[in-house]
Amino acid sequence: MYQLIIIDDEENICQGTAHIFPWDMVGLQVAATFTSGKQALEYVHKNHVDVILTDIRMPLMSGLEIAKEINLFNPDIKVVFMSGFSDFNYMKEALLHSVSDYLLKPIRYDELLTCFQRIKEQLDSKLCIKEAEVQPSYYQQIVTTTMNYIKENVKDATLESAAIHVNMSPSYLSRLIKEKSGVNFSTHLLNCRMKKAAKLLRGIEYKQYEIAFLVGYDNPKNFSRAFKQYYGVTPKEFRESELVNDFDLSSKGNINEA
């Protein structure tokens, strides 16, 4: 899904807009809400955002100032204004900063739906054009970078954190990994966790519950269950086996990674 943030200096409007409208129906996910334009911009600089829905009149930083900054930082991000004032000068300024739409409060459901259906179509169209223009090797490099990220952050890696690392939306990265490697993100993550766990179990430096924590399991029982499902033996059996040094890891749960 495309990532949306909502900005309004009135917290109740932020939360109401975020939770009342079925954003997933138009392919959007509310990633965050803000009552401060400055905080919102800080978030945009650190996270992937596709659409911004913002009030115009706000203290410290107005919606117009936000739109200006976004237009300079990343003009591909769609900005939609919402305001309780039908002011021609605001509308004129909005056009100068390539704002996608201007919605008057109180915003009607059908207006919101029509607006964001149109924005999703625009985002989908731009994405198709980008996919046609980009060389296949670029996408393969994204997948390779993601796989390296998982290996280096096996304990804490998530689809969301990996997507931020490669500057893509989680849904698009998930689809790309599946398309290029044949398996999904969670399978790649599981592979890395189990292989690292097996490597650590060969040694004597860590106890089993410590290994569970090091590979991303807060509950040792869940780790033991996952390990047995993956390798066919429990971590204890694996460690105590006289055949541990000859245990063929490649024959268990092996899935080719991109």
Automatic annotation (TrEMBL):
Keywords: Cytoplasm, DNA-binding, Phosphoprotein, Transcription, Transcription regulation, Two-component regulatory system. Residues 3-120 form the Response regulatory domain. GO terms for molecular function: DNA-binding transcription factor activity; sequence-specific DNA binding. SUPFAM superfamilies: CheY-like (SSF52172), Homeodomain-like (SSF46689). PROSITE patterns: HTH_ARAC_FAMILY_2 (PS01124), RESPONSE_REGULATORY (PS50110). The modification 4-aspartylphosphate is found at D55. GO terms for biological process: phosphorelay signal transduction system. GO terms for cellular component: cytoplasm. Residues 144-241 form the HTH araC/xylS-type domain. It is found in: Cytoplasm. May play the central regulatory role in sporulation. It may be an element of the effector pathway responsible for the activation of sporulation genes in response to nutritional stress. Spo0A may act in concert with spo0H (a sigma factor) to control the expression of some genes that are critical to the sporulation process. This is Stage 0 sporulation protein A homolog. It comes from Lachnoclostridium phytofermentans (strain ATCC 700394 / DSM 18823 / ISDg) (Clostridium phytofermentans).
